[in-house]
């Protein structure tokens, strides 16, 4: 069975010649770690976290059971590494793509496209994230929750920017949670042969999101303005009402006279 390459700290404890090939060893380590996490993801997808055992993970990853325990300690840590690697990668790619774009609408499109392109190519990972979202507790759970909040806040910021630029009125949280509800479940139905490549799907979903929040936001502005006009009209009517009553009384008195 294959054995995981040494960690950076383990390599540093070696002799001086080891440091000369550190970048190459680091690359091998990262590559091997990626392979292990990929195989573990498939096990969790097929069996679920509760149904998967360390022995299942050992067979799938090609590591001895002893080696798996030595390097990872538990299946909980493997799930943590899968989720952390996924969200960290998505956020880094997103920030890189957003860096050179200022238009709020295009930035929202980039957010949707970045998410869909990653998970269209990693649907097993998306299923594991969705189904095992609340499994991790303690330090692992807290760290992942912080990363997820960062991702959520990025999207809220994008929605807020769109509202300011276009002078729209809508609830950013509702809009963001609607976006996540749309893009997080594609693993249950997405078929490239039927639905097209990820960039096409992203464009269609982005159109739906942007047209929806724009129509709702403009409608909210118009409703507020209309309500304001009614209040003003009612105020004017209230001011004029006493005068109208006086005129009517004068006309009535004239007829009696």
Characterization of this structure:
With 257 residues, this protein is mainly alpha-helical. It has two domains: 1-73, Homeodomain-like (Arc Repressor Mutant, subunit A, Orthogonal Bundle); 75-257, Tetracycline Repressor, domain 2 (Orthogonal Bundle), CATH 1.10.357. 82% of the residues lie in helices and 0% in strands. The protein has helices at residues 8-12, 16-20, 22-51, 54-61, 65-72, 75-98, 104-121, 123-131, 138-166, 172-183, 192-195, 198-256. Helix 6 (75-98) packs antiparallel against helix 7 (104-121).
Secondary structure class reads mainly alpha
SSE ordering: HHHHHHHHHHHH
The profile of the biggest β sheet is:
none
> Mean pLDDT, nearest integer?
83
Under CATH at level 1, the class of the largest domain stands as Mainly Alpha
Low-confidence stretches: 1-18
- Strand content range: under 5%
CA-based gyration radius: 30 Å
Number of strands: 0
Overall domain count: 2
CATH H level, superfamily name of the largest domain: Tetracycline Repressor, domain 2
Named at the architecture level, the CATH assignment of the largest domain is Orthogonal Bundle
Relative helix content: over 70%
Shape: elongated
Tally of helical segments: 12
The first-to-last residue Cα distance is: 117 Å
- Look up the CATH topology of the largest domain: Tetracycline Repressor, domain 2
């Amino acid at each position: 069975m294959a054995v995981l390459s040494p960690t950076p700290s383990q390599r540093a404890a070696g002799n001086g010649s080891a440091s000369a090939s550190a970048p190459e060893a680091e690359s091998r380590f990262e590559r091997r770690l990626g392979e292990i996490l990929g195989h573990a993801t498939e096990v969790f997808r097929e069996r679920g976290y509760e149904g998967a055992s360390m022995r299942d993970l050992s067979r799938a990853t090609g590591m001895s059971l002893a080696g798996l325990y030595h390097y990872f300690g538990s299946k909980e840590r493997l799930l943590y590494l899968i989720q952390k690697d996924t969200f960290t990668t998505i956020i880094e790619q997103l920030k890189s793509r957003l860096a050179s774009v200022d238009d709020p609408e295009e930035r929202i499109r980039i957010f949707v496209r970045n998410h869909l392109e990653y998970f269209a190519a990693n649907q097993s990972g998306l299923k594991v994230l969705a189904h095992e979202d609340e499994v991790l507790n303690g330090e692992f759970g807290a760290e992942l929750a912080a990363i997820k909040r960062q991702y959520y806040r990025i999207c809220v910021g994008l929605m807020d920017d769109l509202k300011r630029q276009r002078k729209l009125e809508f609830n950013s949280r509702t809009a963001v949670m609607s976006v996540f509800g749309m893009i997080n479940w594609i693993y249950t139905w997405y078929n490239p042969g039927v639905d097209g490549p990820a960039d096409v799907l992203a464009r269609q979903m982005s159109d739906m999101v942007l047209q929806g929040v724009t129509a709702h936001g403009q409608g909210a502005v118009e409703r507020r303005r209309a309500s304001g006009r009614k209040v003003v009209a009612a105020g004017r009517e209230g001011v004029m009402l006493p005068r109208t009553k006086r005129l009517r009384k004068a006309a009535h008195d004239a007829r009696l006279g």
